[in-house]
UniProtKB/TrEMBL annotation:
<keyword id="KW-0040">ANK repeat</keyword>
<dbReference type="InterPro" id="IPR002110">
    <property type="entry name" value="Ankyrin_rpt"/>
</dbReference>
<keyword id="KW-0677">Repeat</keyword>
<dbReference type="Pfam" id="PF12796">
    <property type="entry name" value="Ank_2"/>
</dbReference>
<protein>
    <submittedName>
        <fullName>Uncharacterized protein</fullName>
    </submittedName>
</protein>
<dbReference type="InterPro" id="IPR050745">
    <property type="entry name" value="Multifunctional_regulatory"/>
</dbReference>
<dbReference type="InterPro" id="IPR036770">
    <property type="entry name" value="Ankyrin_rpt-contain_sf"/>
</dbReference>
């Protein structure tokens, strides 16, 4: 890697300076020097991002405002895809987040791993930041890259942040999205002896022993990945509901809604051998005869305990 030098400082030394700047006894002497050195040194990282990083960790809006006044790109990214808003969300600096958003910051900007500012706010339990991001149009169901599919709700559930999880659900977050995690044991995948498994927010809450999160998710229809793997598949086409599944002789309620808020029971169905036709034979269908009365209708299945 190319060394990063400015006024005799290496990049590693700048990191130590930054850490030192956090200490009370060094703040006054080191921080001004750090502000002057970092921006010209790290030429590949936009000055606004550097200012935002320093402000997010140490407080203060003057540096961020100064760069904005110069016309800095509010959505400029560092090598890792980090934006200034990402730092504000990560460290819970609402005043910085408000300033950046007011100047056009993209609340759904993703880093190289596909994480948005809301992922960080949810994972670090910064409720006011999460509320601000959601009110500004943040996608509550944003998924990261690498095939993992982690959403902000996964992060909140894993961290045990009930208020954040409740906020996300009330804002329309899907309760049972699947993400992929690596766990020890099983066949090798890449480095080490790990296996990749599918989990839901409920799985993560159970694994991390967060009973309040478990209760919240269950109250909103939360399921484990294993339960979901046994659920039938529901699709809709030309006024017909197509229901196929893997497990027989289990009852399910067919629920419908016109606004995704209030759900009512349309009927109760039991999958039998008829719903498991040979390959090439289309599955049986369920016709909602009342759907014609509504311009829009949504459906879901619920397991009858």
């Amino acid at each position: 890697a190319q060394s990063c030098r400015a006024e005799g400082f290496l990049r590693q030394q700048l990191k130590r300076l930054e850490n030192c700047a956090k200490r009370v006894e060094c703040r006054l002497t080191v921080k001004p020097q750090l502000n002057a050195i970092v921006a010209p040194c790290c030429w590949w990282e936009p000055p606004l991002l550097i200012r935002s990083m320093i402000a997010a960790r140490n407080g203060g809006l003057s540096g961020v405002q100064a760069e904005l006044d110069k016309g800095a790109d509010v959505n400029a990214k560092a090598l890792g895809g980090y934006t200034p808003l990402r730092f504000a969300a990560r460290f819970g600096r609402k005043e910085i987040a408000e300033l950046l958003i007011a100047n056009g910051a993209d609340v759904n900007a993703k880093d190289k791993d596909g994480r948005t500012p809301l992922h960080f706010a949810a994972g670090k339990c910064h409720k006011e930041i999460a509320e601000l991001l959601i009110a500004s149009g943040a996608d509550v169901n944003a998924k990261d890259f690498l095939g993992r599919g982690r959403t902000p709700l996964h992060s909140a559930a894993e961290g045990g942040h009930r208020e954040i999880a409740e906020l996300l659900i009330d804002s329309g977050a899907e309760v049972n999205p699947i993400c992929i995690v690596e766990r020890e044991g099983g066949p090798n995948f890449g480095f080490g002896n790990f296996t990749r498994v599918s989990v839901t927010s409920l799985d993560l809450a159970v694994d991390e022993c967060h009973p309040e999160i478990v209760d919240l998710l269950l109250a909103h229809g939360g399921r484990t990945a294993e339960e979901l793997s046994l659920m039938p598949r529901l699709s809709y086409s030309n006024g017909q509901l197509v229901i196929t599944g893997k497990v027989r002789d289990i009852k399910y309620e067919v629920l419908y809604s016109s606004d995704l808020t209030e759900w009512k029971v349309l009927d109760t169905v039991t999958l039998s051998s008829d719903e498991f036709p040979p390959i090439g034979v289309p599955p049986k269908v369920y016709v909602d005869k009342t759907a014609i009365e509504h311009p829009m209708r949504f459906y879901q299945l619920r397991l009858v305990e």
